[in-house]
């Protein structure tokens, strides 16, 4: 399989500029590494640290909103809870994608050169890496700002357009500060953040569960075709969260090379799955008692007066924790696109773009509609890209070498043909095409139309791209064809 899955041997290679010049230690605790390889001497930590990283990021307002949205879509409580569990099982894929981090000592934005080639991966990072991350940053920032507006209103200040803009900028600044300080700050801050958020949401759970109608069924229960269409749409909505983290190796790459792969995958997946199920489930339970079209206002009657500001602060804190991860990976993606800028600068660029999108989402567009449309539509890209990456990990048996991956020269093993691995690109395109034919969100694909609106975009994209990549790479290996160099 040496031709299509190049042996990542560090012998006889040409180093990129990033690898040739060792990263200097950052001053003041700011992480100095970007997409360059992390040497063994700087590896540290244990895989269980990944739990708090992902748990803190998933106890957030957006998860509460999405859980409530499932009931608003017409599902009964128990149907919604089942959808939440199934959708959050996709964290297993996120865990798998974190496994190459310790092996390569490199972020996902570099590891995926094995999938698409050096040049092809720049396009991949521009779209599925940077653009989608920035969109998620904006959506999460809008969610945090919504809670912060209420806090500002409680002080007696007018919540006008100027105040809203200032609040958005302030939250973004706090988020970007964590991202700029980087990996060490995230690992240090997220355990106490996880504990604080867990305590707040435990109090919220007591208040919500006291009013939950556990036998809730909508006035007009869905059945047959309409039920399956809604269930599949709900699973895609929930799954879009874990699928958006194709960059999970970014947060495991500082672990020692010998870290067990099962531990990396398990702690990553568990850190996302547990809070994902609990917080989304809490949102679904709340929807049986209050109108979750406006969760922040509707939940007020259920909460004690002293707890309301604490709850709002927790919503903001949870979203900051989530967005710090998103901004961190988006900054790495911008570097991997080919921009020779420091990671800190790339993070600030991401923040500027995200703030602009957030202000649009809050001041111009309907927030809930925007959330639903974006999350469901991104599945068209995220499902296939996740599947291709996962299959590559399995085919290579997680054998990745960071210094070799840093080789961007035409003589390097990941140049393929003209800088593009056309097999990987074709597998991704086939998966995206299959997903687009089956989607039913902001537009309806022809297959979704033929099925009466049943959205099979997620399974179609995953299966087609995974099978295509496995077959194309294995066929190329058996044929003995080697990558062509210009």
TrEMBL record:
Alphabetized UniProt keyword annotations: Membrane, Transmembrane, Transmembrane helix, Transport
Topology of the protein relative to the lipid bilayer: Multi-pass membrane protein
Pfam entry (one): Transp_cyt_pur
Protein origin, superkingdom: Bacteria
GO molecular function, one term: transmembrane transporter activity
Recorded GO CC terms: plasma membrane
Compositional bias (Basic and acidic residues): 33-43
Location within or outside the cell: Membrane
Gene3D superfamilies named among the record's database cross-references: Hydantoin permease
Region (Disordered) residue spans: 1-43
InterPro entries: Pur-cyt_permease, Pur-cyt_permease_Fcy2/21/22
Transmembrane regions listed in the UniProt entry: 51-75, 81-106, 127-151, 163-182, 189-210, 222-243, 264-290, 310-334, 346-368, 374-395, 425-444, 450-472
Family recorded in the similarity comment: Belongs to the purine-cytosine permease (2.A.39) family.
Protein name: Transporter
Classification of source organism: Bacteria, Bacillati, Actinomycetota, Actinomycetes, Kitasatosporales
């Amino acid at each position: 399989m040496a031709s299509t899955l190049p042996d990542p041997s560090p012998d006889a290679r040409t180093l990129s500029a990033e690898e040739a010049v060792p990263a200097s230690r950052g001053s003041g605790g700011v992480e100095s590494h970007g997409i360059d390889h992390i040497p063994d001497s700087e590896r540290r930590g244990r895989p269980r640290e990944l739990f708090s990283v992902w748990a803190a990021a998933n106890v957030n307002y957006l998860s509460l909103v999405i859980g409530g949205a499932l009931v608003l879509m017409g599902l009964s409580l128990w149907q919604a809870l089942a959808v939440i569990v199934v959708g959050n099982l996709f964290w297993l894929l996120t865990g798998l994608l974190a496994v190459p981090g310790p092996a390569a000592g490199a972020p996902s934005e570099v590891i995926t050169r094995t999938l698409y080639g050096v040049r092809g991966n720049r396009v991949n990072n521009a779209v599925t890496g940077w653009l989608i991350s920035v969109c998620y940053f904006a959506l999460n920032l809008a969610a945090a700002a919504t809670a912060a507006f209420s806090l500002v209103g409680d002080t007696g200040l007018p919540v006008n357009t100027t105040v809203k803009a200032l609040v958005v900028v302030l939250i973004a600044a706090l988020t970007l500060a964590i991202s700029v300080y980087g990996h060490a700050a995230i690992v240090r801050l997220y355990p106490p953040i996880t504990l604080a958020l867990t305590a707040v949401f435990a109090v919220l759970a007591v208040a919500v569960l006291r009013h939950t109608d556990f036998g809730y069924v909508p006035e007009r229960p869905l059945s047959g075709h309409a039920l399956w269409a809604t269930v599949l749409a709900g699973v895609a909505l929930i799954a879009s969260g874990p699928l958006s983290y194709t960059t999970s190796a970014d947060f495991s790459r500082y672990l020692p090379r010998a870290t067990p792969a099962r531990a990396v995958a398990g702690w990553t997946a568990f850190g996302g799955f547990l809070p994902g199920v609990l917080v989304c489930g809490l949102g679904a339970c709340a929807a049986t008692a209050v109108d979750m079209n406006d969760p922040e206002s509707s939940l007020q009657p259920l909460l004690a007066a002293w707890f309301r500001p604490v709850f709002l602060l927790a919503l903001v804190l949870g979203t900051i924790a989530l967005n710090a991860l998103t901004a961190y990976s988006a900054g790495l993606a911008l570097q991997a696109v080919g921009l020779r800028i420091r990671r800190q600068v790339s993070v600030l660029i991401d923040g500027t773009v995200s703030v602009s999108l957030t202000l649009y989402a809050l001041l111009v567009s309907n927030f809930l509609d925007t959330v639903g449309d974006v999350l469901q539509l991104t599945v068209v890209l995220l499902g296939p890209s996740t599947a291709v990456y996962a299959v590559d990990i399995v085919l290579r048996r997680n054998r990745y070498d960071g210094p070799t991956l840093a080789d961007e020269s035409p003589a390097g093993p990941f140049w393929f043909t003209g800088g593009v691995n056309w097999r990987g690109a074709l597998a991704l395109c086939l998966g995206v095409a299959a997903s687009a034919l089956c989607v039913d969100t902001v537009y309806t694909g022809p297959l979704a139309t033929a099925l009466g609106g049943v959205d099979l975009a997620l399974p179609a994209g995953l299966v087609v791209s995974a099978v295509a990549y496995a077959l194309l790479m294995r066929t190329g290996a058996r044929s003995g064809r080697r990558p062509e160099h210009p």
